[in-house]
Design a protein that fits this description.
By secondary structure, the chain is mainly α. It is built from 5 helices and no strands.
């Protein structure tokens, strides 16, 4: 039952993130914590879920000649280092602090969406 609920919530979060133009992690992480994962595991799972999307996106954009391979390599290598560093840092931070930091990200994202909506011209 938990897997079915996770799939349904994932689909809803995916649609909402597409409608609002935000990353899915903004909605997936709270959903995963609600389903019982720790904040650390929810964030890691959300980041892992990005990999197939990235691979398909690169494959599709490469067919159109839109991928700058040298820049992609630099960003990819830097991302690997940042992921290891971020994981170590996240493991050393208490769960409550991780949740508060994520809440700050959620508030900042909501403010950005509100600002874009307010300043958008019809």
């Amino acid at each position: 039952m938990t897997y079915v609920l996770a799939v349904i919530l994932g689909l809803v979060a995916g649609v909402l993130s597409g409608l609002f133009g935000v990353g899915g992690g903004i909605l997936f992480v709270p959903t995963l914590t609600w389903l019982g994962l720790t904040q650390l595991h929810a964030e890691a799972t959300s980041l892992l879920a990005i990999i197939p999307t990235v691979l398909v996106g690169v494959w599709r954009q490469q067919r159109h000649g839109n991928v700058r391979w040298q820049s992609a390599l630099v960003i990819g290598i830097a991302s690997i280092g940042a992921a290891f560093g971020g994981a170590r840092l996240a493991q050393s931070v208490p769960e409550a602090t991780l949740r508060k930091l994520f809440a700050v990200v959620l508030i900042a994202t909501a403010a950005q969406i509100a600002w874009r909506t307010k300043t958008k011209r019809p």
